[in-house]
Amino acid sequence: MSEPGLCAVSFAAAAAISFALTPLVRGLSLRFGVLDAPDSAVKTHVRPTPVFGGIAIWAGFMGAVLLLRLLTSFPSGTLYNLRALVLGGTLVFGLGLADDMRRPQGLDYKPKFLVQFLATALLVLYGLRVRFIHPGWVAAAVTVIWAVGVTNAFNIVDIMDGLAASQAAVAALGFLLVSLPSEEHYVNFASAAVAGAALGFLPWNLSRRWKVFMGDCGSLTLGFLLAGISLGARYSDVNNAGVFAPLLILFVPVFDTLFVSILRLNRGLSPFLGSKDHFALRLERLGVTRAQAVVLAAAAAAFLSFCAFLATQFDLRGALALYALVVAVMLWAGRRLALVSMG
Q1: Eight-class DSSP state of 182
Q2: What are 154-176's pLDDT values in tens digits?
């Protein structure tokens, strides 16, 4: 079977598994009373909601990878890379599940960061790391910072129905767009599986009657998998600045993380504490509905993913001009949104 055909199988399998399992894990969440209650000022929902959707997302990804393993003989390098995502992703999934089970307090941030560092160390151990930085120990350190940052960025951006899942799906398809022509097998298969798993969960997350949240076990897992995927594609075949393309693909969750962290620090608050400073909530304060905010964010992510693809195809001058334009728009948007009163 061709590479695009295998990617289609990966996407379809992950979507089918995630879609079929989500109502089942929703029932488990209700049965064991593991619910996200609107018990603090930073919560934006109005009634206790099941939170085990991430189990279906994790199962969708793992099921797709297992199916591909049965259908084809991976090259040794591809199998090695996928093993890093499977092991590290499962470790982060377990961390998120433990955090969900301890609601409403959750785990302290220190053990959460420790487990994330260990999972990222698995990526480095299996050869998935930043490659344009030397010496190797510096590259490993940057890899850890990047992967832990992206993992938590998806946890932070998960504040509105459909937002984190749609961002994960668009980002995964963005990495697939950049990687597929170069046949980076593990990136292609894993990207398709992440996109399918996120989209399979999405209808249930948006449902009024059967609503379920992905929980930390979903948002952390999606963030970690996308961080791992971002380390494998070839970005600099045309120009060296192409290595920054992942920042464009993951721009929306990264922007939200930086945005809320800066605003919290400016008010003397810890960036690890929740608040309503998120860009999506500020758009809502401006009169944008939540559905519109999610669609706008997904459209922005899709456009930026296409810009990332262009940044890997332009010459150096064109790529740098594209990055400069995106940074200018980010600073303008951040300035405008920061002025929105959330009182």
Answers
A1: G
A2: 999 999 999 999 999 999 999 99
Provide the residue type at 108 as one letter.
Answer: D
Q: Residues of the chain whose pLDDT is less than 50?
A: none
What CA–CA distance (Å, rounded) separates 118 from 131? 20
Asked, for residue 343, whether it belongs to a domain, the answer is no
Structure tokens at 243: 């290595």
- 278 within domain boundaries: yes
* Separation CA 6–CA 68 (nearest Å): 7
Q: Is residue 120 a part of any domain in this protein?
A: yes
Q: Tell me the DSSP string of 94-108.
A: HHHHHHHHTTTT---
Look up residue 34 and give its two tokens. Answer: 């593991």
Q: Is residue 46 part of a domain?
A: yes
Provide the β-strand partners of residue 49: 36
pTM over 0.85: yes
The domain total for the chain is 1
**What sign results for the dihedral spanned by CA atoms 120, 125, 126, 132?**
positive
